[in-house]
Amino acid sequence: MIDNLPPLRDVITTHDLRAKKQLGQNFLLDLNLTSKIARLAGDLENCDVLEVGPGPGGLTRGLLAHGARHILAIEKDPRAIPALEEIAAAYPGRLTIINGDALDVNPLDHLTGPIRIAANLPYNIGTELLIRWLTPRDWPPFWQSLTLMFQKEVAERIVATPGSKAYGRLALLSQWRADARIVMHLPPEAFVPAPKVHSAVVHLTALPKPRYPADPSVLSQVTGAAFNQRRKMLRASLKGLHPQVEDLLNACDIPPTARAEEIELERFCALARALATARAAG
Ligand code: SAM
Known about the structure:
Elements: H1 8-14, E1 27-28, H2 31-40, E2 48-52, H3 58-65, E3 70-75, H4 81-90, E4 95-99, E5 115-120, H5 123-134, E6 145-151, H6 152-159, H7 169-177, E7 178-186, E8 191-192, E9 199-206, H8 216-228, H9 234-237, H10 245-251, H11 265-280
Parallel strand pairs: 2-3, 2-5, 3-4, 5-6
Antiparallel strand pairs: 1-8, 6-9, 7-9
Bound molecules: S-adenosylmethionine.
S-adenosylmethionine (SAM) is lined by residues 23-28, 52-55, 58-59, 74-77, 80, 101-103, 120, 122, 125.
């Protein structure tokens, strides 16, 4: 037992929280499991935590029991708010609840650093939020770590290495400015209702600075063009970026006949730097 609050199945019944598909609701009702995810989020004692989509509050309770200093929980479904308020009452001053869309809320209006993010995300907005958290203009970002549940295939794209089918922009984006690891696998039966897919928790830690230097928007142009036509040779897919793109590729030790999925992050960053220099030289 992690707290004196009622079991989550009772919370669901009391508040009539029947899962709604359009809100991506697949709840974790086993508090042992949510405690484990909270532990994977790291040391929370001196951290504020942003939680997106707390639903009936299983992970929220895990995070609070694990010592989170203060949690901002953003939940779109108004039916879940009374259940979350019961948790807030059991942990006075440590849980702020917002009934709204996580895409519209600025967490920094409510939290102070250091900040960790932990969430069993609604799958429909999971990737969008991840990309948003990974692409601020300035680095390091407002968060120290992200501990996020994804559909297994998305988790595999985040940690993918060159040469694999899953390797692409999401891997490069995640690994350029963060360390990313899959820390837990969950079968469909871990959720109520059980989704059709398997899930995995990914833990990302923000690096103090990007792994290799590059201008974020040039790197994004290069990887965007390269992976939008991932079956093409790079000399063809990157043709539109610069008239002498083949020379730039050669200078970065990238065979112009290679395909995007063969090229590791370090050489994409080198190419982004070479492209920026060539453009500046006119
Ligand atoms: N964290 C809970 C758990 O582990 O049992 C619920 C997880 S469920 C997969 C996703 C939750 O996100 C649901 O409670 C859903 O209502 C909420 N949600 C969906 N879209 C949202 C949005 N745009 N902003 C905030 N919450 C959202």
